[in-house]
Design goal:
By secondary structure, the protein is α/β, with parallel strands linked by helices. The strands form 5 sheets. The chain has a 7-stranded mixed beta sheet with strand order 4-3-5-6-7-8-9, with helices on both faces. The model is unreliable at 327-333 (pLDDT under 50). The protein has helices at 3-22, 29-39, 44-65, 67-76, 97-103, 116-120, 160-175, 198-208, 220-233, 242-254, 276-286, 395-403, 436-449, 478-482, and strands spanning 141-144, 154-157, 184-187, 210-213, 237-241, 266-270, 289-296, 300-305, 311-313, 318-323, 336-341, 352-361, 373-380, 385-386, 392-393, 411-418, 424-430, 456-460, 475-477.
C-alpha cells in the first residue's frame, strides 16, 4: 500500500468514521476499541472482576429505572446488593422473546420513556440512525429483530448498542491484521430493489470506506454486478449475510475464480452460522481467511471467531451462560445460550434466551486471548432434532452429508425439513452433476443414521427461497415451530 492510500485509510479510521458516528450518538468507538485490545489479554480473574462490577451496575440501574425489572426483582425478592458474585444472576428468571414482545415499553429506562412515542412514530425504517442525535432531546430509535425464530421483537436503543457493535467489529478485523479505515464491501439486508439512495451509498464510501451491496434476493445477474463493483473497489474485507457471501462465492467459482492481483484479507459472515460447507466454498473462491460473528440485533455482537478458530465471547460487555432449559411442550437437548448485556443501555437485556444451543468454556486458544469461548455451538434449539429412536442430529450432520465428494457439483442448495411426524423432507436445488447415484447416496445416508421407521421425501425445486429476513434456513423444524 502506498503512502497516500495509507494516509487516506488513517483519516477514515481515526477521523471521519468515529466523528460521523458520534453524530448518530455512537460514541467512544476508538477509545473503546483500544481498551478491548488490552482487556482481551487480562487474566480470567480480572475479566470476571470487570464483569461483576458491570453486572452490579446494570442490576442497580435496572432495579431503579426499568419498570419491568423493578417488578421482576420485587417478585423474586432480589435486591441489587444481593449480587455478590456472577453466579448470583441465576436467581433472575430467563427473559424470553415473548417477554420482550409483551413488555418492551416497560423495559425502557424511565428517564428515556418520553422518547418512546417519538421513536414509534418515526417515518424511518427500524434501526435507521438519528442524525445529530447527541443534540436532540429524544434520542431513542426503534428497532426489531429479524423474526427468524418467530414474531420479531421490538426494542429501543440510543446508538450505544450500534457503537459497541462497531467496536467489536474493529477488534475482530484487527485479529486478522486489518486496520480501522480499511476498505470494506458489505452485503447488507437490503435487496436490489430497496438499496438506499445513491447519496447514502456515496457518503458511506467517502466517509467510512464501505461499499454497500445488496445481500438478499440475489441471482446471477446481481452477483455479477456485485463482483464487478468489488473488483473495482478492491476491499480488504468482505462482510455480509452468510447466505449472500456463500452465493457470491459459488458464483465466483463458477465464473473461473478471482482475477490475479486481488485477494481480500478476510470474509466475515454475519446473521447466520458459517457452516463447514460454506466456509470451504468461501475459502476456495476468495482464497483468504473466513470468520463468523455470532449475535442478535437485540443484544449486539456476542462472539466472533479468531484466526485459530475459537469463538471468543465479547466478555467485557456481556455475560454469556449455557444452561439447561426447556420450553413448554418441547423436548430440549443440550444447553441453551443466555445473554446479559452489561454495558450502559436504555433497554438492558438480562438473561435473554437466544434460542441457541452451545457450551461456554475457558479459553485455551493458541491465539493467546483469555476471553471465554463459545464451544460446540450446535445451532438453534429448533435446528437440533431428536430422531424417533432418541439420537440427536445437529445441523453440522447435514453439512458433512452435503460436503461429500459424492454430491460435488450435484446440488446447488438444500433445505432439511423435520415434519410434525418426525419424518424428513429434503428440498433440493439440483445442479448439472445430479444423477441417480446422488439420490442413492442421500437415501443410503439417511438409512444409516435414522431408524427404519423414518420416512424420507426428496422434493426437487427450482429455487429454495430465503425467509422474509433474507436468511436461508438450512433446517426447518415444523414440530418445533408449531410448539
Amino acid at each position: 500500500m502506498n503512502y497516500p492510500q495509507r494516509l487516506h485509510e488513517a483519516v477514515i479510521g481515526r477521523i471521519t468514521f468515529p466523528l460521523t458516528n458520534y453524530l448518530f450518538n455512537r460514541k467512544n468507538i476508538l477509545s473503546d476499541f483500544h481498551a478491548l485490545q488490552k482487556s482481551e489479554h487480562l487474566s480470567i480473574e480480572l475479566l470476571r472482576e470487570l464483569q461483576l462490577a458491570r453486572l452490579r451496575e446494570t442490576i442497580t440501574s435496572a432495579d431503579k429505572y426499568v419498570p419491568y425489572y423493578t417488578r421482576v426483582f420485587k417478585e423474586i425478592g432480589l435486591r441489587p446488593g444481593d449480587i455478590k458474585q456472577i453466579e448470583d444472576i441465576n436467581r433472575i428468571p430467563p427473559l424470553s422473546r415473548e417477554d420482550v414482545i409483551n413488555h418492551h415499553k416497560d423495559m425502557v429506562d424511565v428517564r428515556m420513556q418520553s422518547s418512546v412515542p417519538f421513536a414509534d412514530n418515526s417515518p424511518k425504517e427500524p434501526g435507521a440512525p438519528l442524525p445529530f442525535a447527541p443534540f436532540r432531546r429524544h434520542r431513542l430509535i426503534k428497532n426489531t429483530s429479524s423474526g427468524s425464530t418467530g414474531a420479531p421483537t421490538v426494542f429501543y436503543e440510543d446508538g450505544s448498542r450500534t457503537a459497541m457493535n462497531w467496536v467489536h467489529e474493529l477488534r475482530l478485523k484487527n485479529w486478522f491484521g486489518v486496520r480501522p479505515g480499511a476498505k470494506e464491501a458489505r452485503m447488507t439486508r437490503l435487496s436490489v430493489d430497496y438499496m438506499p439512495k445513491s447519496s447514502v451509498v456515496q457518503l458511506r464510501w467517502m466517509l467510512w470506506h464501505q461499499l454497500i451491496l445488496p445481500g438478499v434476493n440475489l441471482d446471477d445477474e446481481h452477483y455479477s454486478v456485485c463482483l464487478k463493483n468489488i473488483l473495482k473497489f478492491k476491499p480488504e474485507i468482505l462482510w455480509g449475510f452468510t447466505s449472500a457471501l456463500a452465493g457470491l462465492a459459488e458464483y465466483v467459482n463458477r465464473s473461473g475464480g478471482l482475477p490475479d492481483g486481488y485477494r481480500p484479507k478476510v470474509v466475515v459472515g454475519w446473521a447466520a452460522p458459517v457452516y463447514d460447507h460454506e466456509e470451504k466454498l468461501m475459502k476456495e473462491a476468495f482464497q483468504c481467511s473466513v470468520t463468523n460473528i455470532y449475535g442478535a440485533r437485540e443484544v449486539g455482537h456476542i462472539a466472533a471467531k479468531c484466526p485459530r478458530g475459537s469463538f471468543h465471547i465479547n466478555q467485557e460487555n456481556m455475560i454469556v451462560e449455557a444452561v439447561s432449559l426447556s420450553a413448554e411442550g418441547v423436548e430440549q437437548t443440550g444447553q441453551e445460550i443466555l445473554v446479559t448485556t452489561i454495558d450502559p443501555s436504555p433497554m438492558p437485556f438480562i438473561r435473554y434466551r437466544m434460542g441457541d444451543v452451545g457450551e461456554i468454556v475457558d479459553s485455551d486458544c493458541s491465539c493467546g486471548r483469555t476471553l471465554q469461548v463459545l464451544s460446540n455451538l450446535l445451532g438453534r434449539t429448533g435446528e437440533i432434532f431428536q430422531t424417533k429412536e432418541g439420537r440427536m442430529i445437529s445441523p453440522n450432520f447435514w453439512c458433512r452429508t452435503f460436503m461429500s465428494g459424492k454430491v460435488s457439483g450435484a446440488i446447488k442448495r438444500f433445505q432439511i425439513i423435520y415434519t410434525r411426524t418426525r419424518d424428513l423432507r429434503i428440498l433440493v436445488e439440483r445442479d448439472s452433476g445430479y444423477n441417480e447415484d446422488t439420490e442413492r447416496y442421500i437415501h443410503e445416508t439417511i438409512a444409516r443414521n435414522f431408524s427404519p421407521e423414518t420416512e424420507l421425501e426428496l422434493e426437487y425445486v427450482a429455487k429454495i427461497h430465503p425467509e422474509v429476513s433474507g436468511k436461508y434456513q438450512m433446517v426447518v423444524n415444523e414440530a418445533r415451530n408449531e410448539a
